[in-house]
Amino acid sequence: MKVFLTSSIGGSYKENGKRIPCALDDSNNFLELLKKYWPKNPKCLILSSDPENQEVNDSFKFIFDEAFKISNLPLSKIDICDSRNENKLADTIYDYNLIFLAGGHVPTQNEFFNRIHLKELLKSYDGIVIGISAGTMNCADMVYAQPELDGEAIDPNYKRYLNGLDLTTISVFPHFQDAKDLTVDGLRVVEDISLEDSKIRPFYALVDGSYIFVDDNKSTLYGEAYYFNNGAFTKVCDKDKSIQL
């Protein structure tokens, strides 16, 4: 299995409130590496982050079908797995050689993945997995589900650590370029939430365009990223550079 853990891979932009397909982000030679492992006439399955939101799921499917074509990564088939067909996943997942884990709300997606027994199904999967944002976060053995919605940061029952898909031991905090200016429930996302949580378990913060490639238990980080551990963070890689983790 080849696993791409990304913060964002581009593929669309907004114009007059409408999302328009475009080429994938090729920062840090992402497309070059992806094309190296791209199957012939791949069949792609998108795993939703919100199985009940069929309108958004269908839009996501359309956007990325077009984005892959624009990026010269054609697909022979693209489907989405959500509440409409989740009961068929165990019988169909191995028909696909490319699995796409969508972005969204981490706990919602995590609950869906548990419901469809995705962790167990992926143990016998031998294709490419691409995670985006929440999809990347849920790939870890132990997921850092950072609070992002109003009420989550101050809710004593909100679980910040969840069992994930166990495709990597690396926990990821995406969209770091935006998080530095965000607050949740009056708390600063980086200073008051992330740094405190890193005292419990370390994680890597990725800016959009950076990614981690996992192949045969070897993990390589590409692009700008930061390591959070024990209440502090340090820059560990720059754009257009790479390091072994």
Question: How is this structure best summarized?
Answer:
The chain is an alpha/beta fold and 245 residues long. The chain has helices at residues 30-37, 54-70, 89-92, 106-115, 118-122, 134-137, 176-179, 189-197; strands at 2-6, 10-15, 18-24, 43-47, 77-81, 98-101, 128-132, 142-144, 161-163, 172-173, 183-184, 187-188, 203-206, 211-215, 218-222, 225-229, 232-237, 242-244. The protein has a single domain (2-244), classed as Rossmann fold (3-Layer(aba) Sandwich).
* Main sheet record: 8 strands, mixed
Radius of gyration: 17 Å
Low-pLDDT segments: none
Mean pLDDT: 96
Structural class: alpha/beta
Tally of structural domains: 1
- Text of the CATH class: Alpha Beta
Number of strands: 18
CATH superfamily: Class I glutamine amidotransferase (GATase) domain
Q: Note the overall shape.
A: globular
Task: Trace the largest sheet across and list its strands.
Answer: 5-4-6-7-1-14-15-18
Q: State the order of secondary-structure elements, H for helix, E for strand.
A: EEEHEHEHEHHEHEEEHEEHEEEEEE
